Here is the input.
Amino acid sequence: MKYGVSTLAVNHLPLEPALRKISEAGFDQIEIVAEPPHFWPGDYDPAQVRAWIEALGLSAPVGHGIFSHTSPNAAALDESVRRADVERIATCFEPLVAIGAEYVVLHPTGYAKDYTTEHRKAHVDQARRSIEELAVIGGDAGIRMAWENLPHHGADRPLHDLAELRALIDDLPDHVGLCLDTTHARICGHDPLEQLNIAADRLFCLHLHDCDGEHDCHWVPGRGLIDWGPFIDRLDELQFAGTRSIEVAADESTFGQVLWASRQVAGSWEDRAS
Here is the structure.
């Protein structure tokens, strides 16, 4: 099974040279981030981006939806804000489909600091409304949506546990599923392997990166505390057919080494399954 890399690793570069660096590192699959300076809706012609991707021998089966640049919150208590954010989130669907993406990873909540125990249920109810509305829009656009577990950072941010998130989407159409972020699980006190087993047949996408157990480090797998062997073996036992994106962070001085190390890890995992 093939492993790709998120364009997050080359977030300091414009999109075309970023894609080139990923290709030069030996990857042939990407998760493209729909945020500046990369595939922000309206900034690039999807036909041109698809041409770049294909010319480099890459594929982009998954995109990461809008999450930071305009700080959308699918669980906002203010209904006018929630509706506006649903519309904003959906703007990336058609451009992603146009470059060949099958999946879009989405965040069910806004920033962790905005959540309190008092309003937890209300936020979950609002998230459900947004997920339902985006399921209709995504279905019409022809894209499958993977809702991601997010870190709580010590606040009462809901839906960080895939058991809760799966329960929220389980009765929705089969183009609605989950994205498991391994570090988000680990720093919230969840075992990534257990979260994998919970998501199981509703799992569409993976964000694979390592951490120190406390921070959202976006390290190359193997640098931190996550026990990768059983996790990767279980993926193959499940015959997981979705996307496997290494989601590492780097800057101008480190991206070359980070991409190289990520490709070495990806190669070892691909060999493990063969």
User: Anything to note?
Assistant: Residues 49 and 187 are 35 Å apart (CA to CA).
